[in-house]
Amino acid sequence: MAKHRVDNDIRRLRFEHGEMTQKQLAELVGVTRQTIVAIEKANYAPSLELAFLIARVFDRPLEDIFTFVPA
Amino acid sequence: MTHEEKNAIVSLFVTVLVFGYYGFRFSGLYAEGYFTGDDAMTRTGWEILYLIGYGIIAQIIGQISFAIIYAIATNDPKPSFLVDERDKLITLKGVRYGYAVMGGGLTLSFIALAIGWDPVIVFNMVVFSLAFGAAVETLVKVALYRVGA
Hints:
The complex is a heterodimer. Chain A is mainly alpha-helical. Chain A has 5 helices and 2 strands, in the order βαααααβ. In chain A, helix 2 packs across helix 3. The relative contact order of chain A is 0.25. Chain B has one domain (3-147). The interface between A and B is medium-sized, with 13 and 14 residues.
């Protein structure tokens, strides 16, 4: 059965924000670097709370960062 | 490697070592006839209590040793102990598989008891079901971390 996916623009946004590293973003939102890696690769869909925290770091609305891709 | 992933790998390694040692020790004692007579279950109970005791000590020693070795190997004097939402989700997935295996093992143990197997053996089947369930739980966690789920 095909699965839904949550794509994102985090990688691009990190580079637009002073080439922020995955580690720096992870520290800002209180998760491990591996979680940021998994989110960027769309292997892991973050909780709504974490998604809002990431959006706040980049000062963008949620839908500018995350895109729901139906199966 | 996250703190949880390191814990899982060490836990798996220590679990295999401890239960390997216990299985080896138990099979030797059983062959010698140590678990026969009126106090067979009492002796079994003590063996399992020893197992719990050295199992806990081995886990503590394993976790501390690995933390020190990993910190030296990666030249990271302040490793992170952060556990985040993805770690918790991976743990839950591991627990789900672990419980399934444990439940299967317990069912087999009770079937063995029902068909008249030696209660000492059945009691150890229960213990090994718990251990095997814990090992599968940890194995699933390690696998999920490795594939980057």
